[in-house]
Write a structure and sequence with these properties.
Elements: H1 2-14, H2 18-21, H3 24-40, H4 44-60, H5 65-85, H6 91-114, H7 117-126, H8 130-159, H9 167-198, H10 218-238
Length: 241
């Protein structure tokens, strides 16, 4: 898990595709439009066009095929529950229900895989209370440190044979391990707050504004938005008998 998160974070900053050079606000609007239409579009042609568009976005962003496949297949397990719960013998309706989370997942992967986290959280923090926006910003980075800590702790427990033996013993040791991680996270947050205080924290962590800068590559995002809008309007009528 930590490797997957770290890979996405690295690709967002080190990628060289046209989408990596586009502004964060253009990609946020594009992704929001794709997700909104994926959720509310009632017609199959529109969803098929959205799925093809989302696949084209992640492939042209040069994201690894492994991540694309994971983003496309992971939501299917959850969608299957809703399909079975609402099954009425209509295969077309079931396929529509299954396609919606796949499109949304691919759009989200394209967004986070091409947008560095400061640019991604900067516009979001402007719409939330200051404390919540700053907490989300810090939590994103803390997740990597905590996951890395958990992974190293789990490896150490296995190498020392702590996970072997009776269930009661293993449960006790795992409880102690979880407590260690919690204390580590608390101690790390205290150190981080002290460092921020010493460096003159002014109450706003992510103050960057270059996510609003319009760039030449934003024309591609505009073209995608126009295509999505045209597909949502034209395709349903074009396929009517």
């Amino acid at each position: 898990m930590i490797n997957t998160f770290a890979q996405v974070d690295y690709l967002a900053s080190a990628g060289r595709s046209v989408w990596h050079r586009a502004s964060a606000i253009a990609k946020l609007v594009t992704a929001a439009l794709v997700v909104a239409l994926a959720v509310f579009a009632p017609h199959a042609p529109t969803l098929v066009a959205l799925l093809a568009t989302a696949l084209a976005l992640v492939l042209t962003a040069r994201l690894p095929l492994r991540l694309v496949v994971a983003a496309a297949t992971a939501p299917l397990a959850f969608a299957l529950v809703f399909v079975l719960a609402s099954w009425h013998g209509d295969l077309a309706a079931a396929l529509l229900l299954a396609m919606r989370p796949v499109v949304a997942s691919l759009a989200a992967l394209w967004l986070v895989g091409t947008t560095p986290y400061p640019d991604l959280f900067a516009p979001i923090s402007r719409t939330l209370p200051r404390s919540i926006g700053d907490s989300l910003f810090l939590t994103y980075r803390a997740v990597f440190a905590l996951l890395d800590r958990v992974e190293r702790l789990w490896r150490a427990l296995r190498l020392r044979g702590v996970l072997e033996g009776p269930m009661r013993r293993r449960a006790s040791r795992m409880g102690e391990a979880v407590g260690t991680v919690v204390l580590y996270g608390f101690e790390r947050s205290q150190r981080l707050y002290q460092v921020m205080h010493l460096r003159g924290h002014s109450g706003r962590i992510c103050g960057c504004r270059h996510w609003l800068e319009v760039r030449l590559e934003d024309a591609w995002a505009l073209a995608v938005m126009l295509w999505i809008a045209a597909a949502a309007i034209w395709l349903p009528g074009a396929f009517r008998p």
